[in-house]
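INFO worker-7 received task bundle
INFO bundle size: 2
INFO processing item 0
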Amino acid sequence: MLALRLTRTAHLAVHLRRLLVALASAGTGFLLLCALGHALSHPDAPGASALRLAWCAAPLAAAVYLAVAVARTDPGTRPRSGLSAIGLGPGRLMAVSATTTALSAALGSVAALLAFLYLRGSLTGRPPSDRVAADALAVGQSLPAPAVLTLLVLVPALASAAVAHTLRPRDPRPTTAAAPRGYGRFGAYGWGKARETFGAYGRFGARTAVAGPAGSRAVADAAGSRAAGAARVGAGGALQTQASAPHPPTSADGTTQTLDAAPPAPADIPQTPDTAPDTPTEPTPRPHNTTALPWGIAVLTAGLTVETYTGSATGAPAPGTAPSAGVLIGWALTALGLALAGPGLTHLCGRLLQAARPGALRLLAGRVLMEESHRIGRPLGVVAAVAAAAYVTATVYDGDGPAFGPLGTLGAVLVAGCTVATLLTAAVEARHARADTTGALLRLGAPPATLRAAAAVRAAALLALFGPLVLVVAVLAALPLDS
């Protein structure tokens, strides 16, 4: 009930994003049902039906990715201070967000079932529509209810599970109070707790304990000259000098005690809250993950290799037939590689903007790109992979149309639309994340035109970096298919 109330009272933009999730779920569910219909109409060709079902994994992954991005930007399920007191902690909000996503995706699955039955003529009693091939609708055959239910539940179940995994409560990582780094004897670098005062190593023999009267006398002279110059500022701000002693105190066993350790603080000085021992430690902010760039390049190379090998072996697919499973695996690896390399490339783009004596505009644009690389990097990589696939499709088929006809067009529109919507949603999330910084800049007197110019510089820099990358990947992927 709480999820329904939050869904009903949300803003119009939130409703539009949830509607996009429902549309993506409806399109994906319809493609899954069409794959089932093809399997029922062609029982003697299970391989072709399985290949059609495997190609439905691309719109399925795009729909789930969009659902996760929409759930991350939902203001109704964002953790706030004080909600745990009324039973709305991070775990409960995560459950509410997963339930809301499941409801939106379930609405799309119901719409997909109604559209499939309408095109088959099962709802109106009319002849089946000629917009979709009759073998994909399984006209004249009964649909198995367990299979239909399994395919329709697939999108809501995966979307809600992905949202629950992404928004799961994470334990804070407290910082351990590390001892200050110090320099040991003769500049040795280490973690020693004893801190040396200025000039401790400048006086010869100040740290040397020599047995015997002469050695004790030398140590006493050095320690006395050291103690004569020691000074300490008291609690009231007055300069308190330590009286010089001609001889350092000696212990009962005759050894000389040095004055390295600082005397204890007076008991009447109260401890401030900053230095109280029971002060809770702040959680450590997670660093930006830019170390996946080499892994992304490696996976991208593997995907292009698989596509080259498969394309050289099978050649370009004929219109009306689905590409082979090797092409699907190659494009999946290519998209995964670009998604892994996206944050690192975005971070690199921000660094390049700040190179060579940057001004205020380039510095602001570069810093924002580096800060937002973990939010918009992966959606940018996925959009780059989809753009490269579109270029390859347009180059290979030479205007003959996609392999699946209307179903292939629907799948391509779904994948492209979901990826672009995910990128725009991630941009909205990044804008909300830096709202405080933008407000602070405006209060300090920064003109709004400068902020808009910085946004234009960021967009141009990303286009200049990812545009050639998309072209190179597309050309390398299309070379074996053109031959």
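INFO item 0 finished
INFO processing item 1
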Amino acid sequence: MLGQVVVVEIETDEVLVKRLLRGSEPGRYDLESLAGPTRHDARLRWAAHITAIIPPFQARRILVRGG
């Protein structure tokens, strides 16, 4: 997933959407922000590919129609 925009959870319990980059040592990652500073050498609990981003107003319409 290196180089991809992914969802990650870091050791401080934060869940973030960031570009995943190699850190300065094994098990550490740089998390590049799309609109802010890069976090360096973060430890991840998990990372996942993003399959869809649905804005809240559209999600409500989907749930109402499907329900």
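INFO item 1 finished
INFO post-check item 1: The chain has one helix and five strands.
INFO post-check item 1: The radius of gyration is 15 Å.
INFO worker-7 idle
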